[in-house]
Amino acid sequence: MAFVKDMLRMWAHSWKRFISIAMITLLGVAVLTGIYAGCRDAFRSTDRFFDAQGLHDVQVLSTAGLSNGDIAALRKVNGVAKVQAERSQEVTFDLDGRKSATMQEIGTNGIDQPYLQEGRMPKKAGEIAVTRKFIRDSGKRIGSRLTVTPESASSDTSDTNDTNGADGTNETSGTDEAPSFPTKLTIVGVVLDPQNLSNPDGYSAMTSFRSTATTDYTFFAPSDGVTGILYTSATLLVKGAAAESTFDESYENTVKQVTDRIDGTVKTDRQKARRQELLDAGNKKIADARAEADKKFADAQSQIDANRQQFNQQVDQIVSMQAGAAAAGAAANGANAGAVAAAGATTPQLDETTRETMRETIIAASPELTQAKQQLDQAQSQLNEQKASTEQTLKTKENELKTSIPQVRWYVQDRQQLGGFSALKSDLDSIQSLGNAFPIVFLLVAVMMSLTAMARMVEEDRSLIGTYVGLGYGRLAVASRYLLFALLACLIGGGLGLIAGFLGIPAFLLVVLQGMYVMPGLRLEYDWLYGSLGIALFVVGVLAATIYACVQEMRQTPASLLRPKAPRAGSRILLERIRPVWNRIGFLGKVTARNIFRFKSRLIMTVGGVAGCTALIVCGLAINDTVADLGIKQYRDIYQYDLMVVSDDSDASAMRTKVASDGRVTSSLDVRIESGDLAISGGGDGDSGKAGSSGSESIQLVAVPEKHLSDLGEMVTLQPVSSGMLGTSGVGKTGSLKLDDDGVIVAQSAASALGVKAGSKVRLTNGDGVRATAKVSAVNRNLIGSDVYVSETYYAKLFDSKDAKNTKNSKSSEDSEALTWNAMLAKLSGSDTSQTDYAESLEEDSSVMKAVSCAHMADSFKFDLMGAVVALIVALAGGLALVVLFTLANTNVSERVREMATLKVLGFFDREVHHYVNREMMILTVMGVILGLPLGRLVGGMLTMALNMPSLYFEVEVKPLSYVIAAVATMAFALLVQLFVNPVLDRIDPISSLKSVE
């Protein structure tokens, strides 16, 4: 009992050490669990929401729309649980200028169901539900009415071109299969689109560099009132996918099995079948047009023939009358009266030549008959010309049909291709990677501080330990006094750390996340296993340090422990050997130097602890500086052009004419831009598989005209880079990189994510889904986006042969036609504001699909979530620095109580004692800061390597101000600690302290 009482008394006397160990454990456990718990809560709530709303696992798109046959084929794929055919239509309306929206049919099979936030779901034709973004931008509310105008149907869904009929009218070949929605609309509800969780009311919605929306808004309408049997997409749910977390690799593997089956079997067959359907439909329309034309021509010919027969009868009648009159006159002049009677009784018989001569004579003698014959001949001639022209036109259409209908392409996509999903996942993954790295530094500092504190605690009880051991207490029993002390401190600190880690920090992170994303049903959850392991990790580390300290003392005999520990033998320090310096140092300065360098363990612990805390602060600020400069570096330094304009292939010429006519461009470069995919080459170049699979990166494929390869360097800064260590990279000289026909230039962001370097072989997918194996000629410095530059010649070498294989015996001019330059990179005159306004005005033009201003992108690029997490980490690192300095200062004072008492006996005033002790701590702190600043840059490089996000490369940047802030913050903490230590020095009693050894 006395042993226990003495132990409790000892614990109470060491309350400062208890608080230090508890605080370090609290901070470490909070960092270890907090960021993890916040990301996990967001992952789980989002996964539950996606499952509840039936967010599709796979989406199938086609360049020619999807038919019922396509839907039926998808239902037969092994592993598919549900298939939902969806219809949509792009519309425009007036809202402070031309705005676009996608009219989306609400599926009836439970897939991609919008989440109702206000009002009710639409049920009747003409009713729609809109997103909160539209309500905010338009100022409309539930009950408001809206009129929209459908955009013109895409040429991709047209079957044939117009055909001229026999009567000169146009018979259009457009189809009624395309979806059509009502145009008079009434808003009845406000919903959240599960495919886009961005928060329009938050301080930071989806950053523009990751925005993938092709229209401004999405309107949801019921099936009632929607016409057309051609589907714009098909969404699928995969069996067993709902049981997996959508953010886990197991989910991706489950979905990939189904997408591979679709790519391997259904895709190729249905692409051919769909194109054949379009060909058959075109041939049928041509055949129908020929039959209708033949019928009209036959009717016209019958009318002409009837008129000509009537005309001939009239002329023949005149011929007969004239022939009879002539015969009667001849008989009257004869001698035979019987001949007269015979001549009067019958019409004379004329041979064909005579009759034809008489017909021509009669027609020529009569103006009326001449005109009638000319009209009949002219009508026959016109009819013959129309028949020949129509037949020629139909034959031309038959010949052009195969080339006018392109190869049908299917695009099989999973959730990774959803801009909202991939942005949320990449944000959370990057933050979680930070949460996995920072606790390691906290754990190391905790072990160091625990070793320092517990070693001093055990050393102070040296004689007491010897007494207990001499009285027969086992060494384990004696050591349990300190082990239980450290264990209790860890458990209390760890328990408080769990509260902060599973409640405080997640609540902070989720507030930031909810400013960026809408996550219904979000709640905080506790993970017993992870929390217990978090505490156990720090308990093991601290107890190991305590055991080491106990073993170091208790391996001596009781007699040795009962005697005071011999003072450390005097020795010279290195500075003493530098006589010119040492002779100029004052007495107290020499004492300070000896105290600092003679006690190596204290030097290492203090400098190491301060360096670790300073490094954490620098690391956090480095990440903040790196993210803050991404937009400026990319859109001001790397991209030299001011404007990028993209159009459809059919509108490319009109787009260039529009931009040229505005007179704002000082120089430009026409290019072709396609959305593609880059993957590590598996040695083949097959045309199966899906983009965006594991080990691949979505890219922007930029093809450059052969005659203007040298102009690319004027629009984009071309600098070769090589991978470096710890977040660094070697950057070559500007302009030393040239695009040629031997390979592609890959952006650093994509190359870093895939581990690609110059000379590597990669699998490249173009905008048509055609794949080829390409050589990487160089890796170009690039931070945002994943551009891959390819020359016109090398593009043709990679992909034209594949197109030839896909088209049987096709030797049309279209296959060998030059690329369509559907984009323009341009430098503009004027200020940044005028350039941004000009880009916005271009997007209102019908020929422009997308116009991007680099000035706007540089100013608007933000990464608010990362900034919030960095602020949290810097605050925790600052707290750790404060605790470390407090622990080290108190340990330093406890070790030197007799020294301080001696100074007081010698006549040192309290302020002089303060200065004597604090000067050493400040020098050690400065040494720790000097070591911690480059260490923080090193750790920052390592952490940014862990931030492997799609289309982003973190080029480590630490501004001088960040170093200053880290140094000043650490020194400020040291000064703050002095305010707590000075009263302890004042309370040292010289008499009792000097008697303590007796």
Features:
six-stranded mixed beta barrel, four-stranded antiparallel β-sheet, alpha+beta, 28 helices, single chain, 15% strand, elongated, 998 residues
- Which ranges are low-confidence, i.e. pLDDT below 50, for 5 or more consecutive residues? 153-176, 203-212, 339-345, 683-694, 801-816
Beta fraction: 5-15%
The span between the termini is 27 Å
Beta strands, count:
25
Category by helix and strand content: alpha+beta
Instruction: Give Rg in angstroms.
Output: 44 Å
**What is the mean pLDDT?**
81
Largest sheet: 6 strands, mixed, barrel
Strand order of the largest sheet: 16-17-23-20-22-21
- Which term fits the overall shape? elongated
**How much helicity do the residues have?**
55-70%
This entry's quaternary arrangement is single chain
- Please count the helical segments: 28
Layout: helices, strands, pairs:
Blueprint: H1 2-13, H2 15-53, E1 58-66, H3 68-75, E2 80-86, E3 88-94, E4 98-105, E5 115-119, E6 127-131, H4 132-138, E7 145-147, E8 149-150, E9 163-164, E10 170-171, E11 184-192, E12 217-221, E13 231-238, H5 249-332, H6 337-345, H7 352-365, H8 367-404, E14 410-414, H9 419-460, H10 462-470, H11 475-514, H12 528-554, H13 558-562, H14 579-582, H15 587-598, H16 600-628, H17 630-638, E15 643-646, H18 652-662, E16 665-680, E17 696-704, H19 712-715, E18 721-723, E19 729-731, E20 744-747, H20 748-754, E21 761-765, E22 771-780, E23 787-791, H21 792-806, E24 823-828, H22 832-842, E25 850-853, H23 854-860, H24 864-895, H25 897-905, H26 910-946, H27 960-986, H28 990-995
Helix pairs in contact: 2-9, 2-11, 2-12, 2-24, 3-5, 5-6, 5-7, 5-8, 7-8, 9-12, 9-16, 9-24, 11-12, 11-24, 15-26, 16-24, 16-26, 16-27, 17-23, 24-27, 26-27
